[in-house]
Specification:
Alpha-Beta Plaits; four-stranded antiparallel β-sheet; 4 strands; globular
């Protein structure tokens, strides 16, 4: 199982909607609005790194207001 932290930069006023949409998605373990250089941090788990990549590119990047993401993969479980 691969655990990844997705750091998401959003357009102004869009972060709350993204958090609501990601809550309850099967592989999303946690999602929060945060302060600092990023607006949202999501923790996801999936079977392998390719599935994490697919989730970020086909789900997160498709959401309205997402400007940029940075993915950090956990090296320890």
């Amino acid at each position: 199982m691969v655990k990844a932290y997705i750091l998401i930069e959003m357009a102004a006023g869009k972060s709350g909607e993204l958090v609501r949409r990601l809550k309850g998605v099967a592989n999303v373990r946690s999602v929060s609005r945060v302060t600092g250089p990023y607006d949202v941090i999501a923790i996801i788990e999936d079977e392998d790194l390719n599935k994490v990549h697919d989730f970020v590119t086909t789900v997160i990047h498709k959401e309205e207001g997402v400007l940029r993401t940075t993915t950090s993969v956990s090296v320890e479980q």
